[in-house]
């Protein structure tokens, strides 16, 4: 009898140990059955199902980068896909479908700009409601403080393509441009006709300028704007070898002819388009008219970004 009682006690003890190991109750941990119940109820919700069904009509496929017959290298664009769960969370308070509360994920394209063969770039994606200001600098430093002030006042970042020879003489401006968040590109060393010089001279013009700019701001340019827009296939190939894209423009202020502010602004606004690249220099016309030009561009619904932002696949 004594041995029987010991056996029973041992069995009870083992059962209690087993229960303790397999079920440690924590009052602060929600039971998984509650979460499962919530998920099931969400999926069964008519609103959730409506969002799921309608999401297909709002999704947009990503667009690959491509080489246009006229505009050459053209960036791709991210696609859009409705996040059904997040959209449901946004709408469940109202209890009705509201397309303004849809939440999207951006889906990148398979072919990006960097995967395309060497070619010049003139513009951003033709559906992107953004433009970029391209400011080529090899003179006109007396107008830069005003231009930088206006850009800062409007919280606009531009892209400055800087000549190497000029950068050596005006390193303080190069630093200032960089510190204010603008992108700095390569504009060759001493403004040659790039299409008419040897391949070795092309390499020297680009490499020397990159070295100077890197020595000033610690960053090597990724973008190259050929002086006067003159280039050849060799120029583009060599720039690519040096890990730079060759940038041209689609809208020209022609500010070097010193037009009146109204003429310059009308010239730009008459040709502006989604993905536009707007060429300018540190001239009196730009110093006087940039403020109004930025106001007018934004009034047309365009954002103003750097060349990096314009050419990205982001919406």
Strand fraction equals 5-15%
Helix % is: 40-55%
Tally of separate helices:
12
State the end-to-end CA separation: 83 Å
* Unreliable stretches: 19-25, 31-37
**What is the 3D form?**
elongated
How many beta strands in the DSSP annotation?
12
Radius of gyration: 30 Å
Fold and architecture overview:
The protein has 315 residues and is an alpha/beta fold. Helix content is 44%, strand content 14%. It is built from twelve helices and twelve strands. The protein has helices spanning 2-22, 32-44, 46-58, 84-91, 144-153, 164-169, 171-179, 199-217, 233-241, 261-269, 284-299, 307-311, and strands spanning 66-68, 72-74, 79-82, 104-107, 130-137, 159-162, 183-186, 223-224, 245-246, 251-252, 277-280, 303-305. Strands 5, 6, 7, 10, 11 and 12 form a six-stranded parallel sheet that branches. Strands 1-2 form a two-stranded antiparallel sheet. Strands 3-4 form a two-stranded antiparallel ribbon. Strand 1 and strand 2 form a beta hairpin. Helix 3 (46-58) crosses helix 4, helix 8 (199-217) packs across helix 9 (233-241) and helix 10 packs across helix 11. The longest helix is centred in the N-terminal third of the chain and has 21 residues, at 2-22. The radius of gyration is 30 Å and the shape is elongated. The N and C termini lie far apart (83 Å). Residues 19-25 and 31-37 have low confidence and may be disordered.
């Amino acid at each position: 009898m004594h041995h029987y009682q010991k056996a029973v006690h041992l069995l009870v003890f083992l059962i209690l140990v087993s229960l303790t190991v397999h079920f440690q109750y924590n009052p602060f941990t929600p039971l998984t059955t509650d979460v499962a119940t919530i998920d099931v109820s969400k999926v069964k919700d008519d609103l959730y199902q409506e969002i799921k069904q309608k999401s297909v009509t709002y999704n947009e496929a990503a667009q690959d980068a491509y080489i246009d017959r006229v505009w050459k290298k053209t960036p791709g664009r991210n696609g859009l896909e409705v996040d059904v769960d997040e959209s449901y969370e946004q709408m469940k308070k109202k209890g009705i479908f509201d397309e303004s509360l849809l939440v999207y994920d951006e889906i990148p394209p398979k072919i990006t700009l960097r995967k395309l063969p060497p070619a010049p770039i003139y513009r951003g994606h033709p559906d992107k409601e953004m433009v970029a200001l391209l400011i080529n600098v090899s003179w006109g430093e007396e107008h830069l403080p005003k231009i930088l002030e206006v850009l800062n006042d409007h919280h606009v970042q531009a892209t400055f393509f800087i000549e190497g020879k000029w950068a050596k003489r005006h390193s303080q401006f190069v630093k200032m441009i960089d510190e204010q968040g603008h992108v700095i590109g390569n504009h060759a060393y001493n403004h040659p006709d790039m299409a008419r010089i040897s391949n070795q001279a092309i390499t020297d013009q680009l490499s020397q300028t990159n070295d100077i700019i890197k020595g000033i701001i610690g960053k090597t340019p990724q973008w190259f704007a050929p002086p006067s827009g003159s280039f050849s296939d060799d120029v583009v190939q060599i720039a690519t070898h040096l890990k730079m894209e060759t940038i041209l423009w689609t809208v020209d202020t022609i500010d070097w002819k010193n037009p009146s502010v109204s003429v310059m602004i009308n010239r730009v606004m008459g040709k502006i388009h989604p993905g536009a690249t707007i060429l300018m220099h540190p001239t009196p016309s730009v110093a006087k008219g940039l403020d109004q030009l930025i106001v007018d561009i934004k009034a047309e619904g365009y954002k103003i970004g750097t060349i990096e932002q314009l050419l990205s696949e982001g919406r």
